[in-house]
Design a protein that fits this description.
With about 325 residues, the protein is of the alpha/beta class. The chain is built from ten helices and 13 strands. It has a seven-stranded parallel beta sheet with strand order 3-2-1-4-5-6-11, sandwiched between helices. The longest helix has 20 residues.
Length: about 325
């Protein structure tokens, strides 16, 4: 049975990804800093859960004990705002934590492959769309800068230590109540269900929203691709729908699906926020064999339904 280690495994993407690896017959180990991982309660008996900080000096020994075939590195301070408010912590976890993960992996006799969860934030504000992987990176936030540095660390270890690695630049993943409530779609949905105003920071902003099942599928496809490589490789892929959605349109769709008329309030955009993005996913389609199956309409309907049931239980 092949072994996969998922750092940040109790988070939104990590918990959903773990379920898919379990279904695919993998031996799954989840590493996360959380003491009370609620996201994995439904299947905690089917995985090994280890509470550990990715910056820990014990990480190398832990890697030697489990001997993973592959590592999905998701652990990070994952909100742009949080990184602005806690810059030192953000850089410590996102940069030093990533370096510790790669260093620990590189020291293993049987080196595991690594898939790194990056972000469309690394592109910053582009002028040409859809954005391709070959475009220059223009990070405007501390979070984006930490992800750029993380990508560079991955490349260095692939080139110098012989690790096989894939970088996935995920774009605004959403889909169920395991998500961080303060992110765009969860926040819009929760406020709409509560009959409160939706706040949008800046006008005419648009982004590329990716349903969680599609994001998980992309990670699985990347793991299958890298499993079949017998020599060092490093590559990067956009994981996105390739279609933009304006935030005003997003608020209207959510209002319609919730069945409540919701007012929108506009606030000034922060300097560290990206104004617009949608990406080109041709490369992932061609080389990973990945396809997006959820459009924004279907994805939002599913997500709204999940939050309705979730909030009724609370």
């Amino acid at each position: 049975m092949k072994k996969v280690l998922i750092t940040g495994g109790a988070g939104f993407i990590g918990s959903n990804l773990a379920e898919q690896f379990i279904q695919n017959g993998w031996d799954v180990t989840l590493l996360d800093i959380k003491k009370d991982p609620k996201n994995i309660e439904e299947f905690v008996d089917k995985v090994e859960y280890v509470q550990m900080d990715v910056r820990s000096t014990d990480l190398g020994e832990f890697f030697r004990e489990i001997g993973p075939n592959g590592i999905i590195h998701l652990a990070a301070v994952s909100r742009v705002l949080w990184c602005e408010e806690r810059q030192e912590e953000c850089l410590s976890i996102n940069v030093n934590g990533t370096r510790n993960v790669l260093n620990s992996a590189a020291k293993l006799q049987d080196k595991p492959w690594v898939i790194f969860s990056s972000s469309r934030e690394v592109y910053g504000n582009q002028n040409m769309f859809p954005v391709k992987e070959t475009y220059n990176r223009y990070p405007v936030s501390v979070y984006a800068k930490s992800k750029c540095t993380g990508e560079d660390i991955i490349r260095n270890y692939a080139n110098e230590k012989g690790l096989m690695a894939i970088i996935l630049r995920l774009s605004n993943v959403y889909g169920n109540e395991r998500d961080i409530p303060d992110r765009v779609i969860p926040k819009f949905i929760i406020r709409a269900l509560q009959g409160k105003k939706i706040t949008i920071y800046g006008r005419n902003k648009f982004f590329d929203f990716t349903f969680v099942s599609d994001a998980i599928s992309a990670i699985i496809k990347a793991s299958e691709k890298i499993e079949n490589f017998d020599e060092r490789t490093i590559d990067v892929y956009n994981i996105c729908t390739g279609k933009p959605t304006r935030l005003e349109e997003l608020a209207e769709m959510i209002s319609d699906k919730v069945g409540i008329s919701v007012d929108v309030k506009y606030m000034k955009q922060q300097q560290y926020e990206v104004r617009h993005f949608y990406g080109d996913n041709t490369k992932a389609h061609k080389y990973l064999g990945w396809e997006t199956r959820w459009n924004i309409e279907n994805g939002l309907q599913h997500t709204v339904n999940r939050y309705k049931r979730f909030l009724e239980v609370l």
